[in-house]
Specification:
- This protein is an all-alpha fold and 89 residues long.
- Helices cover 53% and strands 0% of the residues.
- The chain has two helices and no strands.
Amino acid sequence: MSQGTGTRNWRVLSLRLNLTLHGLRIVEGCSGMLGPSGAVIPVTTTVFFILVISTRFLYGDWATAWTAAGSLAALTAVLLAWTQMAINR
């Protein structure tokens, strides 16, 4: 067995794939983003960053601020989910 560049030992495979993909296409118009549901993500993001900045001034460190704000955001999400579950029962 001779040791060469290795290009002689590899075969080039030519694959021709003819795939038919089946799926569901959902198209949502622009009108869905203009209502109150379209404002949820920007408002939530803004509130979270205000929470981070306020905890930065409270604790004096960015790492602690991100951790505290993330913990408070997770606690808020759990409490909101719990209250919605209790209301819908």
